[in-house]
Amino acid sequence: MNSKLALVSRILLGLTMLVFGLNKLFNFLPEPEGSPAEAVAFFEALIATGYMIKLVALCQVIGGLLLILGKWVPFVIVFLAPITVNILCFHLFLDLSKSMMPALIVTILHLILIYKYKSSFSGLFQ
Fold first, then answer.
1. For the chain, how are helix, strand and coil distributed in percent, rounded to 5?
2. Strand, coil or helix: what is 55?
3. How far apart are CA 3 and CA 5, in angstroms?
4. What are the angstrom distances between the C-alpha of 83 and each of 1, 20, 62, 73, 79?
5. For helices 3-26 and 100-116, what crossing angle results, to 10°?
6. Cα–Cα distance for residue pair 30/18, rounded to 1 Å
7. How far apart are CA 19 and CA 27, in angstroms?
8. Are 80 and 110 in contact (CB under 8 A)?
9. Fewest Cβ atoms closer than 10 Å to its Cβ: which of 3, 14, 93, 102?
10. C-alpha to C-alpha distance for 23 and 66, rounded to whole angstroms
11. Count of other CB atoms within 10 angstroms of residue 64
């Protein structure tokens, strides 16, 4: 695999996770208009717990920073995998709209990194 592609993927995924994680904490990006009621209800439920949206945000921020810095990348790939899967599933099942493209991009970036670091995961499949 091209190491430049992996580097760009790592930085882009890191920046994406960092920005959207910080947005969950500080709400600086405009809310998407016209979201389906199910999507809105999902986020309202996460916020209503008092901790879940903050936990997801902190995981995104920490994972994003580690990816940008290039630290513990194989660990971060596994650490962020549930978030990436949830981003994709959220858009597939609750908000299939124009925002599907960023979800696909995040998923593709994550898959590129999984492929690049596949040798790091060989012990998981023994």
1. 80, 0, 20
2. helix
3. 5
4. 25, 12, 13, 15, 8
5. 130
6. 16
7. 10
8. yes
9. 3
10. 18
11. 23
Give the CA diameter of the chain.
46
Report in angstroms the alpha-carbon separations of 58 from 2, 24, 98, 119: 31, 9, 26, 28
User: pTM above 0.90?
Assistant: yes
User: What does the pLDDT look like over 12-27, one tens digit per residue?
Assistant: 999 999 999 999 999 9
Q: What is the CA radius of gyration of the chain?
A: 15
The tokens for 82 are: 């549930």
Which pLDDT tens digit goes with each residue over 64-114? 999 999 999 999 999 999 999 999 999 999 988 767 898 999 999 999 999
Tokens (6 digits) for 1: 């695999």
Degrees to nearest 5, angle at CA 84 with 125 and 60: 110
The pair of three-digit structure tokens given for residue 86, joined into one six-digit string: 């949830």
Q: How many CA atoms lie within 13 A of 48 on its CB side?
A: 6
Tokens of 105: 């991009």
Q: How far apart are CA 96 and CA 36, in angstroms?
A: 9
